[in-house]
Amino acid sequence: MVRWCYASEYKSYHREREMDIRRSAVWLLLLLLAVPVEVSPPFRESNPDSDGAANTLTEADLSTDGLPADSGLFIEVVSSPSSCMVKANGRMVLYREKLDGAPPSLPLTFFHEDHSTDGMYVVTLHPVTGRATGHVFADGHSADGAFHGVQEFVQHVQPGRVVVFCVLAESALSMDSIGESLFTALNSSFAPDIQLRSMFALVAVKGGPVVAEGYNLNLDALDALHPGYTLRLTTTVPHTTETVCKELKKPENKERLEFCQKYDGYRRLCDCGSPIPIHYPPKPFDGGRFSSSQSLSWQ
Fold first, then answer.
1. Which of 9, 210, 227, 243 could form an SS bridge with 81, CB 3.0 to 4.6 Å?
2. Do residues 84 and 134 both lie within one domain?
3. How does pLDDT run across 173-195, given as a tens digit for each residue?
4. In which element (H, E) is residue 111 found?
5. pTM of the entire predicted model
């Protein structure tokens, strides 16, 4: 009889404990469901303690849907350790991404990454349509005149064009006296003294002011394995009408004008001061006669 009482109390005790555990689990589940979950927006400000999750682009950032440009040209620039992106009125005009495969474990990661896409990218935009008219690249790991091509390209960009700079991973290692002179002429506040693996972005108007500039200094640059932090820059270039010089308005420059409205980077072809001459050589004989069509060429 005594043994049966002890067994009955034992079963009752554990049954109550089991019910308490179930009630606690239900309350915990209800508590978790009641706590609001914060959804992080794309390109949230980088956290120095994070593992670089903020350095990746989302699908929304790769959208190419155009937006109205009634109030001006809305420019978005992203410079990060893994990609470089420029959008104009919501339309993607430049996107570059690292070509890394699966790197080995640290500390040999850096030496097995692909750095061929690292550097500073420049893209020029039409001030009215926002379409890309040209682009150039300065290798971020070459100290042998990497910015010479950038300087020549910007020098021949037509006045009024929007010029956008962004960095992918690294650009300080290739910053030479040519690059410093270029950014000094553009009135840049940060680029002449850019530091290792620091992100930079600039939006300017050729022959006009700097519209916006951003710089994210990598305070952990002494750590050879630290990639740096993502920088996002947004600005609006005031809406303007395209100015065409008198030389290009001449009837004989009709085709030149159509070409120069769409493209940059062809040196003196679109130079209003002293444009190079254009020749129209006839095509080879076609059935015993010269072809009626003409081809555009320049020297």
1. 227
2. yes
3. 889 899 999 999 999 999 888 88
4. helix 109-112
5. 0.68
